[in-house]
Amino acid sequence: MGDEAVSAPAWTSAALAVPHGFLGRRGGISEGAMASLNCGWGSGDDLALIQENRRRAADAVLPGARIVSPYQVHGVEVLEAGDWSDDERPHADALVTDRPGILLGILTADCAPLLFADSEAGVVGAAHAGWRGALGGVAEATIGAMEKLGAQRDRIAAAIGPTIARASYEVDHAFPDPFLAADDAAERFFSDGPAGKPHFDLPAYLLHRLAAAGLRRVEALWLDTYAREEDFYSFRRSTHRGEPNYGRQISLVGLRQR
Question: Which residues form the domain of 26?
């Protein structure tokens, strides 16, 4: 887990044989509703606190590495990681790289962070998948972008990090329609909730999409961001409470210097 004085605790996946970590809300220095490891630039938190939190997150995964992240917009755009500054992040929801020594960073607060690696080719990817991105194909687009850098689909492994779980994800009655229109088999990712509305299983749906895309090694961590308040930030939980702001956790993946 690491020393909270200099880094932060992270969850990892046995599927990924490269430096990576799914960070939660522990181990940082933010206070109040965003305590403690808030890494989201758009959260309204003090920028100096966010910078220190991101440093601790990076040191928990690949000490000294610089985090490269996009300005996420709930889409399917995938970019090759560049040298842009944090103030000039391009709009995208996934990044890929074959460059060692940097960390691809994805922010979430209920949406699913996806981390990918072909350790043999030395290519990694990271994607932000809410329901729009999952349905639109951000996972498949990330795999395709990795292949352009030399990865092979049958070698790419993927992990689905902390995300809102079916039990916590109530949706409107019309919500399943585009999923069912795209794939009749998607019906199994919905179930009736206690209030009479459907509930959606986002991580199970993503497992289905990744397997259908040809990935042979995929793992979901099955960590519910909504239910585990001490461990994770949750947009939906904060919304239900009427809180004005909420923090974001970060998920990171990278390659060691050769």
Answer: 10-165+201-250
CA distance 210 to 196: 30
The answer to whether residue 246 sits within a structural domain is yes
Q: Evaluate whether residue 53 is within a structural domain.
A: yes
Q: Distance between CA atoms of 98 and 254, rounded to whole angstroms?
A: 9
CATH for 20: 3.60.140.10
Q: Is residue 27 situated within a structural domain?
A: yes
Contact 223, 232 (CB under 8 A): yes
Q: Please report, for residues 7, 119, 159, 164, the alpha-carbon distance to residue 219 in angstroms, rounded to integers and kept in the order given.
A: 25, 16, 5, 16
- Burial (CB < 10 A; 0-12, 13-18, 19+), residue 133, is buried
pLDDT at 258: 80
Determine the pLDDT at residue 36.
96
Distance CA 225, CA 64 (A): 28
E strand or H helix that includes residue 181: helix 177-182
- Supply the pLDDT for residue 217: 98
Assigned domain for 176 exists:
no
Successive 10-residue mean pLDDT values, the chain, 258 residues = 61 98 98 96 95 97 97 98 95 98 98 98 98 98 98 98 98 98 96 96 98 98 98 97 95 95
pLDDT computed for residue 7 by the predictor: 65
pTM for the complete prediction?
A: 0.96
Nearest alpha-carbon partner for 111 in 244, 216, 7, 251: 251
Closest CA to 182 of 145, 113, 112, 134: 134
| DSSP-derived pairing of the beta strands 190-192 and 198-200 | antiparallel
Domains in the chain, number:
1
Q: Which residue has the tokens 């399943």?
A: 176
